[in-house]
């Protein structure tokens, strides 16, 4: 008999992920606060339900893909005045079910929800993702999981239906730590790549020629290889499509803020991550329009000199 999943949060990422669970043979009860997202989930074969409580009734798994840690905590642990989430969802999830929170949140949020689940004899993993909306739709996400080895094994059938790579980073919260580290590094090599390309262009080089040289030299990195920030150097990347996301500056800022928060807790020095966060923040607020909704590779525009 097919297993049942409650999917909470069917936005840009969750919509594609839930659709892939349906394709893989799971029965999916879908809940979101936005009617349009519920409708799209129904069209993808999910069963839309009126509240999170109804979604989790009798399920084998609960998957959440929510905007931030405050919302994740309010859904699972309860908080008055937040939509459906005035009662802890943990009170309604079957004890035998495995909970997978795939949202990007602070490790402390995951640990708090994990500890409450544990107190009730329930199973929880944090499983944030790398890869954007396209990877969510294509089922090629990378999952970074925090949880016990047995819960990791139990999570694999669900995660493999939504992703191409599944890693266990450690205990609950460790998935979020891995995600924060990865995205801080991404921010650093994207800003570095934009800076180097601008220096080359300002000194008369063609950015395509410079990119080809660095791709075969020691400056090669993922941003240069897969996501060149200078318009026209690569096809099918946000820079060649007016910096339409992709991965928004606002989401990168959220992840860099989580990195800063983690570094305060562990007393780690992150001068490069801090610089990257400041650069993206300055970029977001530069000029008349809010750049927060642009793809994060638009940091190139921050370096570009205004036309004479
Ligand atoms: P989104 O805003 O498109 O989707 C979030 C959904 O959650 C919305 O549909 C919203 O209505 C719903 N929601 C909010 N509160 C709710 C509640 N109490 N109950 C039920 N539904 C509720 O966001 P997204 O881009 O899908 O991102 C989701 C998560 O994935 C975030 O944590 C984000 O950081 C992470 N992430 C996003 C990307 C990306 O490229 N978009 C990439 C990697 C990770």
TrEMBL record:
Active site: 179
All residue ranges annotated as the 6-phosphogluconate dehydrogenase NADP-binding domain in the record: 4-168
E.C. designation(s): 1.1.1.31
Catalytic reactions on record: 3-hydroxy-2-methylpropanoate + NAD(+) = 2-methyl-3-oxopropanoate + NADH + H(+)
Pfam families: NAD_binding_11, NAD_binding_2
Domain of life, source organism: Bacteria
Record carries keyword Lipid biosynthesis: no
Pathway listed: Amino-acid degradation; L-valine degradation
GO biological process, one term: branched-chain amino acid catabolic process
Keyword tRNA processing in annotation: no
Ranges for domain 3-hydroxyisobutyrate dehydrogenase-like NAD-binding: 173-292
The organism of origin for this protein: Pseudomaricurvus hydrocarbonicus
Stated family: Belongs to the HIBADH-related family.
Name by which UniProt lists this protein: 3-hydroxyisobutyrate dehydrogenase
Keywords for the protein's UniProt record, in alphabetical order: Branched-chain amino acid catabolism, NAD, Oxidoreductase
GO MF annotation terms: 3-hydroxyisobutyrate dehydrogenase activity; NAD binding; NADP binding
